[in-house]
Design goal:
Largest sheet: none
Number of helices: 7
Helix content: 55-70%
Distance between the termini: 32 Å
Radius of gyration: 15 Å
Shape: globular
Structural class: mainly alpha
Number of domains: 1
Length: about 140
Amino acid sequence: MAPKYGLRRAFSFSESLKKKYLYENEEPNNMTSYTTTWNKEELTAYLLIYCANADFIESNDEKALIKSKTTDGISKRMHVEFEQDNDFDSIQKIESTLLRLKYTNEEKGQLLDEMKEMFLLDGNYDLQEMNLFRGLKRILG
């Protein structure tokens, strides 16, 4: 299934691309807010959904893993939100939520482990997944 807003890139935008995107596609007074009210469980679900879609296909095994890490309601809600977001929106939401929730190094390590588990689930760790993991690892700091 093709993403709703074009290809999802497996990397975050550089600062210059962020500025170009914001100023070419939106009026400065109408900039989108990327602040979420997510808790840590919701962020984990969204991150895993984002990772599962790195190769543009979310398998049944990947869906099952997401559901095992969260409730069915959170999984469905985060899937709906993910489907409405483009790649830039996803990265901005992840970044702002990570900052707001003030993850410890141990919690960041657990998120990275869960992302690795998702990427390795199908036995194929492809270039898109590698690039996405590198980008998310930088965001996690």
